[in-house]
Amino acid sequence: MVSFCELCGNSIQTPKNVIIDGSIFNVCLSCSKRGKPYEPNQPSKKTQPSKKPLPSKNLSIPVSQKKPIKVYHPKAIPITDEKILRPDFGKIIREARMKKGITQENVANQLSEKITLYKKIETGGIKPNDILSKKLERYLGIQLYENLVEDNENEDD
Ligand SMILES: [Zn+2]
Predict the structure, then answer these.
(1) What is residue 12's three-state secondary structure?
(2) Measured in angstroms, how far is the CA atom of residue 44 from the centroid of ligand 1?
């Protein structure tokens, strides 16, 4: 029995049923590409009988595929934990202040601190707390903290 393609009219040995614009056409192989394949055995109703657990063969990922993520920044060291106040902080502060040519009152006023407290800090009697140290460092352009960890990357000028 010889069929004829409903699209091109050629005789076809193995007719294909395709859906074009919602209608089923009996077409040849080449014309079947122009429509959606019509499959009468599979109703379009979406009835999934039961939840089938997906076969997961890739449950265990080989370790070799995991990229080791190194979050290690040797330069990023928390200030308060890893750095210590230099023992000669008072001297550093005093010399920096004198370089700027300002008085103890100037610094105390600038940092909103009591002059008595500042004087004690400058003589080394009282250690400035973290916040005050930071203010002093910024205002006087000095470094009051030094690394506990020995720095091997020291570059000598
Ligand atoms: Zn055809």
Answers:
(1) strand
(2) 25
CA of 110 to the centre of ligand 1 (A): 92
- Distance in Å, CA 6 to ligand 1 centroid: 7
Q: What is the pLDDT of residues 54-94, one digit of tens each?
A: 665 655 555 555 565 655 555 554 444 568 899 999 999 99
What's the 18 CA to ligand 1 centre distance in angstroms? Answer: 11
pLDDT at 77: 46
Domains in the chain: boundaries: 3-37, 79-147
- Distance from Cα 20 to the centre of ligand 1, integer Å: 13
d(CA 135, CA 153): 27
- 45 CA to centre of ligand 1 in angstroms: 29
Question: How far apart, in Å, are the Cα atoms of 11 and each of 5, 19, 141, 142?
Answer: 6, 19, 94, 95
Angle of helix 130-140 versus helix 89-100 axis, rounded to 10: 30
Question: Taking residues 139-145, what's their average pLDDT?
Answer: 95
79-147 belongs to which homologous superfamily?
Answer: lambda repressor-like DNA-binding domains (1.10.260.40)
Give the distance (Å) from ligand 1 centre to CA of residue 14.
Answer: 11
